[in-house]
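INFO batch 0412 | record 1 of 1 | parsing
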Amino acid sequence: MNPAKIAWITDTTSSLSKEFIEQHHIHVIPLHVVINDDFFKETIDITQEEFYIRMKTEEGKFQSSQPSLNDFVELYEKLKTEYDFGVAVHASSILTGTYQTSVLAAEMAGFKLYGIDSRTGSYPLSFLIKKGIQLVEQGVEINEVVRQLNEMRDDTRLFLVPSNLDQLHKSGRVSGGQKILASLLNIKPILSIEEGTAKIKDKVRSEKKALAWLVNRLKEDLESHKVTKAVIIHAHEQDKAVAFEKYIHEQFPDLQTEVMMLITVAGVHTGAGTLGLSWVCE
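INFO prediction complete | emitting tokens
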């Protein structure tokens, strides 16, 4: 009996490398970023670097938008002629409607789909996809693969430290008064993506203290869980990210690290200059 032909589907919030996407034939639907009412397909019409440069240098509105239903229907109409079924792993359904749109489109196209709401994005989302592919290659039955991936969602960590509150204010996440007070006191909010949504975990004075907070949180998980890799995330702050990576290496010499650009649909809210740290407890 031939093994089932499985299509893997995700969106651009997964931050997968071009090489990995091509190697595993992953179908990636782009989200949109909107700059002063002009729509750009993420990673296709505009790179992450271009987006953050424009955010730093231009005035105006920077927003995000989910893929259209038609984008997914067209994809699934094609995939149903080539694959037995698909596994779609998407960004948090609370932060974007992409997951719901994907599942609806599969129903409309008559394509059998196992949909997974990752409840996160960026590195943790890419980790879930890679883990799912690994399990399938090991011969694990698809229902068990989906169960394990859903179970792992609570073990993902994604923390972000905005450089300022400008974009959070523009997107309605903080008030004007909070923005002014934070600027005066140099207060840095620490955001966590958990249970599918963004939460303010703490507020500290200075970026240095914020990064120390992230390292302490990582240390706690390293002491109680298996963590093989930590990813430093940045919104066009390569030098700061590399310096942060070096500091983490000094603290945890055996830990793998990687530097990754923050997905633009998150940067829409946190702004250029954001730094973050992410890992998964295995």
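INFO post-check: The CA atoms of residues 119 and 196 lie 4 Å apart.
INFO record closed
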